[in-house]
Amino acid sequence: MKAIPIELRKKWVGGRGLDAYLLYNHCKPKCNPFGPDNSLLISGGIIAGCPASASARTHVMAKSPLTGYVGSANMGGFFAPELAWAGFHHLVIKGKAEKPVYIFINDDEVEIRDAKNVWGAGIYDTQDIIRKELRDEEVQVLCCGPAGENLVRFANVMTGHKNSGGRTGMGAVMGSKNLKAVAVRGTMDLDIAFPQEALEYNKELIDMVIKSKVSQVMQRWGTMFMYGVTNSTGLIRTRNFQKNQLFGGEDLECENLDNVSIGFDGCFGCQVHCRQRYIINEGPYAGVYTQGPEYASQGAFGTEPEINDMESVLVANHLVNDYGMDTLEIGSMIAWAMELYETGILTVKDTDGVNLEFGNKEALLTMIEKIAKREGLGDILAEGPLRAAQKIGKGSEKYLIHVKGMSNLHSDERATPALALNIATASRGSDHLRSRPAIDLYNLPIEVLDKVYRNNPVPYEGPLVNSYNSYVGKPWMVIWQEMNFMAVDSMGMCKFHTIFLGVNHPTFPEFSKILYLNTGLEMSPEEIWNAANRASTMERLFNIREGMTRKDDMLVDRYFDEPTPGGFPVARGKHIDRKKFKAMLDEYYQLHEWDKNGVPTGEFLKKMGIDEEPSHQL
Amino acid sequence: MQKMIVVDNEKCTGCRLCELVCSVKHDGVSNPARSRIHIIKWHNQGLYLPILCQQCKEAACMAVCPQDAIYRDKELNRVMVNYDLCIGCKMCVAACPFGGMGVNKDSTVIKCDLCDGDPQCVRFCDMKAVNYVDVSKVTLTKKREVVDRFSEYMSKF
Q: What's the pLDDT tens digit per position in B90-141?
């Protein structure tokens, strides 16, 4: 147990920022992600558990078994606050247990316990059994499911019913360490620097967030509201990548959730409560209670396999959560396999008799089980996009929709160059939560863009264009959101409480005040930006150390070669222009002050104060 | 006007913001262990129920107190502890049928004091799962909800 020195707080803040530092320092270069040299980092943000609008986020980091680069997963729930009440902000887990274990942190006591009662159990049962075993219903459990134990390369870390530390296979890293779960119970005081002021400011922040229309819609429908908009516009991925709309997709509309919903569910302290609690009311899974689903689930289990059926979304969401897998990745892998089946690259022999046609609901559910258990074709798909394509061969790779070996969100970025650049450059592979200039989709007035992107808090003199088809000024939007998201992840806040979907939500100036009132740490908006920039660079350095180059910041050919077949005129017939994309990437590196290969060089590293990393200060 | 806290558990999202603001307001720290309100969760059924002192008329805590340290504050319609008289025997904790009387970190008993008329749990709960309402309106609100459901049901025929 070590105290975190204040200099390191000022440099890295906490959460994902400090984890980036710890990963660079504690993960052995070029190590096997499934070996004992990989370090698993679990943390709460610096304001975890504080009255600050949404202070629930837990961050998990390690070298990714999926991409071989930065592995990073962020989730809501109640784990991070409980960890803070137990007196911890960061856990560094090294080596490998001889047999399955779980860690129990009870206030400041840490115990390693036998996990024989939960090994093999789904994530709902795991949490239930551990609570019963510890005789405390208030214990918060973070765990991997059977998929993590089976080293499915996109297995999640989970807490609660649906809080998913998804993407990059952090659950498989837990499995590889024979670590089933981390249980925590905290009853200690978390000091607030200026309690009454922090309380009042919390009210202001909450009002700021829930006053926006987008939050009010999220309060009612969660992220599922996006489906109607993106499907009608043509910004959603269907049939792997063949179409950008699902015709007759009414059954997937969020309103249908009212038939099964029993109420909403909120993460710690959050008034946006973006998910529903639901009970499946028909079919073989009737009576199952779980939470969600999300926009990602509609894409993964609806539009991608082209199944216009809410029940398949509800059931698949439940299964994937219980096995502890990444919705986005598994949806993409199955849709990819369906396209391979359509083209004849995969045949009924390869699928053990499963008819992998698009639209086959039973096939979707069967494949989920097979992947989690690594059976037959599932064993190959569990390896993630690049490894699976290598095993299948026959030109299957060109049907993959991925960046850095991680599959894309089920959105179609061919009409939106800003979002295309964002997924191409995201540190953990194709991703919408490491930067997402989503507000670009609103065609906001230029004055609003000026307010968001200029001098907030650092100067930007370049152009800003409010058409989402444009390539102009987009690299800065990507960088700005990259810093904004890194700052949020380091604070431990949720992205729905910053400028992600709502332009009037909190950002750098508010972060600065939140930090001061709750922790007493004085950091200006610029200093928070700089810390985010530093941490972002650190992730870049880690990736470069593991062998990443400029060619990894690239979209697959289909983005450039296949125009979108459907949608409104703004989204129809669109593809990404190779030359313009290359120019955007050059500008992105330049604005980052990295060299033309995307490598942060000596002078810049010195300026950031990270030229001597790994420094092993912690 | 007499007001009381009314819980509408169907609206509770289980976010526990009430626990957070209660502990910050009363003790200046974030710590649900110090909160006067708790969300009891049935994790596997998705049931959440906010539990706090009901400010009973015939309060068991008051009846059992050997020091007569617990009294009714008529002005705010609440049950209060006189800490000058309290000896910390915790008989009230044992007697309360709801768990409304709690024990703080320093071993003194704690209970909801309605934040002197501005309950913070109510102020912060956007879902209005906890409400601070005039006693005369409590049942009217419920009746209106029942009628709403009734008319919705009848409209199907």
A: 999 999 999 999 999 999 999 999 999 999 999 999 999 999 999 988 888 8
**Cβ contact B16–A269 (<8 Å):** yes
Q: Tell me: the pLDDT tens digits for A106-118? A: 999 999 999 999 9
> Does ipTM surpass 0.90 in this model?
yes
Domain containing residue B126: CATH number: 3.30.70.20
> CA–CA separation, B56 vs B69, rounded Å?
16
Q: Are B44 and B116 in the same domain?
A: yes
DSSP states along A536-578: HHHHHHHHHHTT--GGGS---HHHHHS---SSSTTTTT----H
Mutation site for B-interface testing, chosen from A46, A79, A271 by largest number of B Cβ within 10 Å: A271
Q: Are residues B116 and B47 in the same domain?
A: yes
B3, B38: one domain: yes
The answer to whether B13 contacts A160, with C-beta atoms less than 8 Å apart, is no
b vs e for A364-378, b when ≥16 Cβ sit within 10 Å of the residue's Cβ?
Answer: bbbbbebbbbbebbb
Task: Please identify, among A141, A162, A185, the residue that sits at the C-terminal boundary of a domain.
Answer: A185
Residue A183 in 3-state DSSP? strand
Please tell me the pTM assigned to this model. 0.96
Q: A268: which chain B residues are within 8 Å (Cβ-Cβ)?
A: 15-17, 20
Domain with A74, as residue range(s), is 6-185
B42: nearest CA partner in chain A: A137
CB proximity B13 to A under 8 Å:
yes
Say if residue A587 is in the same domain as residue A496.
Answer: yes
What mean pLDDT is predicted for residues A436-460?
A: 96
CATH number at residue A366: 1.10.569.10
Query: What's chain B's average pLDDT?
Result: 95
What does the block give as tokens for A555?
């979209």
Query: Do A134 and A282 share a domain, yes or no?
Result: no
Looking at the complex, report in whole angstroms how far the Cα of residue A326 sits from the nearest Cα belonging to chain B: 21
